[in-house]
Design brief:
Helices cover 36% and strands 28% of the residues. The chain has eleven helices and 14 strands. Helix 3 packs across helix 4 and helix 3 runs parallel beside helix 5. It is globular, with a radius of gyration of 23 Å.
């Protein structure tokens, strides 16, 4: 799956301007500003404690901001929280399900909570069961479902009232890669039908599925754009992938080498940020050979979202 460019029709679904949230003297959200278009999959990226979940809870009407303003579906988060809750779906990283209920009892419960008219509940329940592929498990105890099935059920319960805006707070945490990919297929289908999806994640490969991303760090947005725009930022250094017979020795040898900005282990290889790949590549090859380390491959590569994520956070640390 690849993120589509130009998602949405230009209509603003979610907007924040200088949004702040303090807990005592601690600033969890620090002057955050962004706009999300209708039908867009907007990703919030960042390490734990960056302020992602706090921002989502403000937008969902679960927390009031300390300063700034935000609207969701044109409704103000300070004064119209009840109306906002009726127009959104919310799925947390803990799935928000009741383990001691049957699958269909959870669906019935959320249909009631979200105010689905009684005449529509049977049709909406059938939709959720079919979407989640749980028709044969409708009488199963929710606690007995595997993580991927719970995830689909939680998503179905969050959208049973057909909300135009969906908030997903680290929804794939602890779920296996196959289940995560299936989940994202469902997200793409909903976005294609016009649902705005606002999702937080710490899985870098999931960032690639979003139309646009905001990278949060210490309560601030430090980067905003499409995955392609993030990777092509001019303030990022060139990246070399270095494969050797001994990654640990190569790591020690390359740290602090002339022209090297940073070195990190990436699978069986090293990702080396450099000032000038043309000049640095032969120098690094020579350095490793002198140390008796077999060099199998050195080539310039496009950074992954993980590379971009690490580089931008380190850049922010240096500024601080």
């Amino acid at each position: 799956m690849n993120a589509a460019n130009g998602a949405g029709n230009g209509e603003c679904a979610v907007e924040a301007e200088d949004l702040c949230k303090y807990f005592g003297s601690f600033c969890a959200v620090d002057r955050v500003s962004f706009r999300v278009r209708r039908g867009e999959i907007f990703g919030f990226l960042g390490p734990n404690g960056a302020g992602k979940s706090t921002t989502i809870r403000i937008l969902c009407g679960l927390l009031l901001p300390s300063a700034g303003r935000a609207t969701v579906g044109g409704l103000d988060v300070m004064t119209e929280t009840e109306a906002i809750r009726k127009r959104i779906g919310y799925m947390s990283q803990r799935f928000s399900l009741y383990d001691d209920l049957l699958v269909e009892e959870n669906i019935d419960f959320f249909a009631g909570i979200y105010g689905v008219p009684r005449g529509q509940r049977a049709e909406r329940k059938s939709f959720v069961l079919e979407m989640a592929n749980l028709t044969d498990k409708r009488q199963a105890m929710t606690r007995d479902l595997a993580g991927g099935w719970k995830q689909r059920l939680a998503l179905g319960c969050a959208i049973i009232h057909r909300p135009p805006i969906l908030f997903l707070d680290e929804p794939t945490s602890g779920v296996d890669p196959v289940a995560r990919r299936d989940f994202w297929r469902l997200i793409y289908e909903m976005a294609a039908e016009g649902t705005t999806v606002f999702v937080t994640t710490h899985y870098m490969e999931e960032a690639e599925y979003c139309h646009r991303l905001a990278l949060m760090y210490r309560g601030k947005i430090i980067a905003l754009g499409t995955p392609g725009e993030m990777k092509s930022r001019r303030d990022l250094h060139a990246l070399l992938e270095v494969e050797t017979a001994d990654s640990s020795q190569a790591l020690e040898a390359l740290r602090g080498a002339d022209g090297v900005v940073d070195v990190a282990v990436f699978g069986r290889a090293l990702h080396v940020s450099v000032l000038d790949p043309t000049e640095t590549t032969p120098r690094l090859r020579g350095l490793l050979t002198e140390r008796g380390i077999e060099v199998r491959r050195i080539e310039t590569i496009e950074p992954s979202m993980e590379d971009v994520f690490v580089a931008l956070i380190e850049q922010e640390e240096r500024r601080a």
